[in-house]
Amino acid sequence: MPIIRVALPLPIPQLFDYIAEDAVHSDIGRCVRVPFGRGEKSGLIVSLPAEADVDRGRLKVVSHVQREVPALPADWLELVGFVARYYHAPLGEVVALALPPGLRRADGVSGEDVDPLLELSAAGRAALAEARRESRALTLLKATDALGGPARRSAVRALEAGSAVGDLIRRGWLVPRDDGGGRHLAAGRPELTVEQAAVIDTVVAAGTGFHAWLLHGVTGSGKTEVYLRLAERALAAGEQVLMLVPEIALTPQLENRVAQRFPAANVVSLHSGLAEGARSRGFVQALSGHADIVLGTRLSVFAPLPRLGIILVDEEHDASYKQQEGVRYSARDVAVWRARQRAVPVLLGSATPSLESWQHAGNGRYGLLRLTHRAVATTLPKVRAVDIRRMKLDEGLSPALHAAISERLKRREQSLVFINRRGYAPVLSCPACGWVSRCPHCSANLVVHLADRRLRCHHCGCDGGIPHACPSCGNQDIQPFGRGTQRIEARLNELFPEARVLRVDRDAARTRAQWEALLDKIAAGEADILVGTQMMAKGHDFPKLTLVGVVGADSSLHAADFRAPERLFQQLMQVGGRAGRGSLPGEVLIQTEYPGHLLYQHLGRHDFDAFAKMALDERRVACFPPFTHQAMLRADAPALSDAVEFLQHARRLAQSCAPETLRLFDPVPMRMSRLARRERAQLLVEADSRAGLQGFLGQWMTMLYAQRTPRELRWQLDVDPLDV
Ligand SMILES: Nc1ncnc2c1ncn2[C@@H]1O[C@H](COP(=O)(O)OP(=O)(O)OP(=O)(O)O)[C@@H](O)[C@H]1O
Ligand SMILES: [Zn+2]
C-alpha cells in the first residue's frame, strides 16, 4: 500500500509518513488531513517514498486527500523547500505560511471566478444605438463600451456610475464571455516619458530569461507606469505577472490602477487582510492559471503561477517584506530566487533602494535602471533643514513650518506634518516624584492616547485608563511628555481653526475600509492639513499636496541600530517625495537641531548616490552587512537568565562546529528586553560568505533541534535579520 510523506505545521524539522490506499504519484503537492496525536492535522504531501521511516505497522491511515483543486506543482514544492533550507525553518511551517488556511485544511475550496469577464450583448448595443433618456445604466454602458473590449466585472464597477453594473447584467446588456483573448487590452495609457521608454527598452532588449533589475527612480518618476508596461508585455505574451507591494494599505490604489489599465485581465489580490474564502479562491485562481495578475503583500510571493512571466517588487527597500515572526523570510529575496528558478526577469523598484540591493547593482549582479526626473512635475521638492536650536517651538512646530502651512492654506493646497509616532504623547509622567507610565509587561512606556483617554502599550497592546493623579505620590498634576500625532493634530486645530485637519495613522485607519475612506477624503481635497506617520510616507500620489513638514526626525539620528540612518534617509526621502508631484511645486521642511548633518545635506540635494556611498563606506569599515552575512539566534523565557543560559549553551555547541571564519558574539539581552512578560536575549553570528554561514547554520540547527529545552523557553533563528 502506498505511503505518503507529509509536511505538517509543527516546530520540528521532521516529515511524517502515512498510509494512503489510493495515493498515486500525482498526489504529490496535494493537501491532506491526517490523524495526529489525539486529533487531526492538515499538511501537504511532499513525496511518495518507497519505504517508510518507521515500522510500516505503526503507520496510520490518511483521513482525507484534497483532490478538488490541482496539486501544487513541483516548482512550488522546490520554492517552499528552498525557503525552509535557507531560513532553517521546518518545511511544514513554511507550507503552512505559504498556503491559505482553508486550502491547507483540505476543505472544499471553490476556484470559482467571482470576477467574470463581461462584454456588451446585442441588446446592449441596441440600447446604445437607441438614444434613450440619460440614466445611470446608460452612462455606465457607454463607459464600458469606451473600454473597447471585454472587461471584468470589477473593472466595470470602477467606472463612472459603476454601481449600476448589476443592473446592466440583469437587463442582459452585459453578458459573460469566455475567458482568454481579451486580456491584451490596455486602456488609457499615457505616453511614456523618454526615461521610462529607455528603461523598458533595456529590459525588453535583455530578452526573456532570468535578469534581476534594480529600478532606481526618484519619487514621482513614474515607476508604476514602468511596472504596468512590463506587465502589459507579459500579458500579451500570455504570461502571468506577480506584483508585490509592501503593505496592504498600498494595495487599493494600485489595484484600481491595474484594473483600470487591464479591464479584461483577471487581477487577483492576495494579502493577509482577506477573508479566508477569498484568499483560498485567489490562490486557486493563480494555481490553475486563471489569474493573470497576482497583486499582493509579501505572502503572495508564494502564489503558484504556472505561466509566470515577470516579477515586479515595488518599494523593494521596505522592511515589511521581511516577516518578523515565525518563518522570517524576506519576500524580496525570495522573489529574486524565484525569478531565477523560473527563468524570468525580476524588477525591484524604489526611490531609496536598500543598501543590499544598491550594492548588488554596484557590483553588477543586478542591472541598474534609472529614472532621474519626475514624470509630471518638472522638479523635485525643495528640501530645507529648519535649524530649531535657538527657536521657540509651539508644541513642536517651528515658526517657519507655521508660516509655510498658512501659505498653503491661502493657496488652497495641502500640507502634511510628518511625525512618526502615534498617540498623543509617548509617556505620562509625574514632575513631582518622577513616576512614568511603564508597561507592566514590557520594557516600554505606555503611550498616552487622549482621543479615547487610554494609556496603551504599542508593543503588547495592553491598555488602561488615564489616572487622574500620580499612582505613586498622588500628585494631581501629571503631564503627558513628548509628542505624537494626536497632540500635533490638536494644536493644529487650535492654530488653524478654519482648516480641516486630518490625522492619518494606524489608530485612524484600523481597517482597510477606514484607510480607503481617509485616502478618498485626501484625494477629494476634503482635508487641508494632514498629520501622518510613516503610513503617509509610502507611494501616495496627491497632486494638491505641496508641503511636507518633518517633526522629530533627529531622534533616529543617533539610534543604536546600524540600519537607523538608512531607514531615516529612506523615510524622509519617501515622505518628502509626496510633495509637489503634480503641476504645483513642492517644499519639504525638516526641523532639526543638526542642520549640518551629512544625512540631511544629502537629502537636501536629493543625492541618494552620495548617501548610499557614505553609508556603504561606513558599513565596509565596520564590517556590517552587506559586507558580512548575519544570523541571529533569539531566545525568550519568563526569566532573562534562562534565555541567556540557553544562548550560552547554543554558543558552546556552535563552537564545536564553527569554521574559523565564523564570528560568534556573546549572548546579550535584546534592546527591548522584555515584551509581553517575556525576557528576550539574542546571539549574533557572522560570516564573510553566505555559503560559509549557511553551511554552519545547517549543522548548528541540527544540534539545536536535538536539544531538550525547558518548556517555557522558546527560540528562533533569524537569517539576514533586519534588527540587530
Ligand atoms: N508617462 C507618463 N505620463 C504622464 N503621467 C505619468 C507618466 N508616468 C507617470 N505619470 C504620473 O506621474 C505620477 C507619479 O507616478 P508614480 O506614482 O508611478 O511615481 P513613483 O515613481 O511610483 O513614485 P514614488 O516612488 O514616489 O511612489 C502619477 O500621477 C502618474 O500617474
Ligand atoms: Zn506592553
UniProtKB/TrEMBL annotation:
Ranges where the Helicase ATP-binding domain occurs: 204-371
Enzyme class, broadest EC rank: isomerase
Binding site for Zn(2+) 1: C430, C433, C470, C473
Domain of life: Bacteria
Any one Gene Ontology cellular component term annotated for this protein: primosome complex
Pfam families with a match to the protein in the record: DEAD, Helicase_C, PriA_3primeBD, PriA_C, Zn_ribbon_PriA
Gene3D superfamilies: P-loop containing nucleotide triphosphate hydrolases (3.40.50.300), PriA, 3(prime) DNA-binding domain (3.40.1440.60)
Biological process annotations from GO: DNA recombination; DNA replication initiation; DNA replication, synthesis of primer; double-strand break repair
Swiss-Prot/TrEMBL catalytic activity: ATP + H2O = ADP + phosphate + H(+); Couples ATP hydrolysis with the unwinding of duplex DNA by translocating in the 3'-5' direction
Enzyme Commission (EC) number: 5.6.2.4
Cofactor note: Binds 2 zinc ions per subunit.
Gene Ontology MF term list: 3'-5' DNA helicase activity; ATP binding; ATP hydrolysis activity; DNA binding; zinc ion binding
Keywords (A to Z) from UniProt: ATP-binding, DNA replication, DNA-binding, Helicase, Hydrolase, Isomerase, Metal-binding, Nucleotide-binding, Primosome, Zinc
Quaternary state and interactors: Component of the replication restart primosome.
Protein role: Initiates the restart of stalled replication forks, which reloads the replicative helicase on sites other than the origin of replication. Recognizes and binds to abandoned replication forks and remodels them to uncover a helicase loading site. Promotes assembly of the primosome at these replication forks.
HAMAP family with a match to the protein in the record: PriA (MF_00983)
Similarity-based family: Belongs to the helicase family. PriA subfamily.
The protein's name in its UniProt record: Replication restart protein PriA
Taxonomic source organism: Parazoarcus communis
Gene, per the UniProt record: priA
